[in-house]
Amino acid sequence: MPPLPIPEAAPLSWYLILSAILFVLGVAGFLFRRNIITVFMSIELMLNAVNLSFVSFSYKLKQNDGHIFSFFVMVVAAAEAAVGLAIILTVFKNRQTLEIDEVSSLKN
Amino acid sequence: MQLWLIPILPLIGFLLNGLFGRKLSKPVVSAIAAGSVLLSFLWVLKTLSGLGAFSGGLDSAYTEHYYTWIQSGALNIGVDFAIDRLTAVMLMIVTGVGFLIHVYAVGYMDHEGGFYRFFAYLNLFMFFMLVLVLGANYLLLFVGWEGVGLCSYLLIGFYFLEKYATDAGNKAFIVNRIGDFGFSLAVFLIAIHFGSLDFGKVFAQAKDLPVESAPGWVTAICLLLLVGATGKSAQIPLYVWLPDAMAGPTPVSALIHAATMVTAGVYMIARSSSIFLHSAFALDIVAIVGVTTAFFAATIGLAQNDIKKVFAYSTVSQLGYMFLALGTGAFSAGIFHVMTHAFFKALLFLGAGSVIHALGGDQDLRNMGGLRTKIPITFATLMCAGVAIAGVPPFSGYHSKDAILSAAYQHAPWMYWVGVITAFMTAFYVFRALFLCFFGEYRGHHHPHESPAIMWIPLAVLAALSLGGGYINIPKFLEPMFPLAEEGGNEWTVYVSIAAGVGGIALAFLFYVVAPSLPEAIANAFRPIYTLIYNKYFVDEFYDATVVNPAIDGSRTLLWRGADATVIDGAVNGIGKTARAVGGVLKLAQSGYIRSYAAWVVAGSIAVILVMALWGGAR
Amino acid sequence: MNFLVLSLIKAALVAFVLMTTLAYLQWIERKVIAHIQLRVGPRRVGPHGLLQPLADVIKLLTKEDMLPSHVNKVFYFIAPFIAVFFALIAISVIPFGGDISIGPIKTAMQLTDLNIGVLFILGLSGMGVYGVALAGWASNNKYALLGGLRSSAQMISYELPMAMAIAAPLLMLNTLSFRQLVDAQGGFYFGIIPRWTIFQGPFPQVVSFLLFVIAAFAETNRVPFDLPEAENELVAGFHTEYSSMKFAAFFMAEYANMVTVSCVATLLFLGGWQPLFPAEYGSKFIPTLIFFFGGAICLYHGANPVRAFDRITLPVAGVVFLGIGAAFLIPIVATILLPLFWFSAKVGVILFLYIWIRGTLPRFRYDQLMNFAWTFMFPVAIANLFITGLLVALT
Amino acid sequence: MDAILFLLFAAIAVVCAINLVLQSHPISSALSLVGVMGSLAVLYLLLGGEFIAMAQLIVYAGAIMVLFIFVIMLLNAGTELKTKRHLWGMYAGVPLLLALVGVVGYIVHDVLPASGAVVFGSFQHGNPEDIGKNLFVNYLLPFEVTSVLILVAIVGAIVLARKEVD
Question: Distance, in angstroms, between D44 CA and closest chain A CA?
Answer without folding.
Answer: 7
